[in-house]
Design a protein that fits this description.
alpha+beta; five-stranded mixed beta sheet; binds adenosine-5'-diphosphate; histidine kinase; 7 strands; globular; 45% helix; two-stranded antiparallel ribbon
């Protein structure tokens, strides 16, 4: 419980920080990038060394932009417009741009469930979840592999929820995203949802991808389970409450439901 409390506090602090400073940093970064572009356009050609320095500066500025983008995405929690959605349709749309992201060595499969139940979500949230998981899957499979997305309807009883923190019996729409990559050990798994936790080298990871997903899923009263085996791969199962239709007697799970790390 203590761990979850710390997690919530950290997320709130990061969210506040992000909202406060990200825009200002973005403005300054635009100035840096603008002047760098201008330098490159100078009539006197730069020496090889100067060009190299300039390109390193541009790389660093681009990476900083990416961090700011993720920070803003992380703090964007309250400006969403949820509506009743068919997640299959949203995923199909998101997947159009996936090939370029994961590259040619990674095979991609999408297995949508027939008659998927509706969920109450902002479509951009699904997009963000898929994109963040796809980047991680790509990084976990430098030599290629399989990246797969599957959806399903899941009626969970108390027994099925045993051992999954914060999961409650109910009807859920399941989104499973898997890879055949490097996998994670238990120590890593224990930290993956913490903001700024990353095992990637400096300049590659921000540690905000899974924390952002955690935030989205908790705010939608869903939960996450992760299965990972070193050397074999990882699967994230994300459960969103089924959107209850009037008169079906199927109620979405209660307020206290929260995403569960691990
Ligand atoms: P980042 O990708 O910037 O490091 P994330 O929050 O998305 O931040 O991920 C945190 C860490 O979780 C990663 O650095 C990596 O160690 C681990 N991780 C996440 N997804 C996977 C995956 N599919 N396979 C192996 N490790 C993963």
């Amino acid at each position: 419980l203590q761990k979850q409390f710390n997690q919530a506090q950290k997320m709130e602090a990061v969210g506040r920080l992000a909202g406060g400073v990200a825009h200002d940093i973005n403005n300054k970064l635009s100035i840096i990038m603008g002047y760098a572009d201008l330098l490159k356009l100078q009539p006197n050609p730069l020496s090889d060394n100067q060009t190299h320095y300039l390109e390193e500066m541009q790389k660093a500025a681009n990476h900083s932009c990416e961090i700011v983008r993720q920070l803003l995405a992380f703090s964007r929690s309250d400006v969403i417009s949820p509506r009743t959605v068919n997640i299959n349709a949203i995923i199909a749309d998101t997947c159009k741009g996936l090939g370029r992201l994961i590259g040619e060595d990674i095979r991609f499969e999408f297995r949508p469930a027939e008659d998927i139940w509706p969920a109450l979500l902002d479509p951009t949230q699904i997009d963000q979840i898929i994109m963040n998981l796809a980047v991680n899957a790509r990084d976990a499979m430098p030599d290629g592999g399989l990246f797969s997305i599957e959806t399903g309807n899941a009626s969970l009883d108390e027994a099925a929820c045993q051992g999954i923190a914060s999961a409650r019996a109910g009807d859920y729409v399941r989104l499973s995203v898997g890879d055949t990559g490097c996998g994670m050990d238990g120590e890593t798994l224990g930290h993956i949802f913490e903001p700024f936790f990353t095992t990637k080298e400096v300049g590659k990871g921000t540690g905000l991808g899974l924390a952002t997903i955690f935030g989205i899923v908790s705010r939608n009263k869903g939960f996450i389970t992760v299965h990972s085996e070193v050397g074999f791969g990882t699967t994230f199962n994300i459960f969103f409450p089924r959107m209850a239709r009037e008169g079906t007697g199927s109620e979405p799970p209660g307020d206290e439901r929260r995403a569960a790390p691990g």
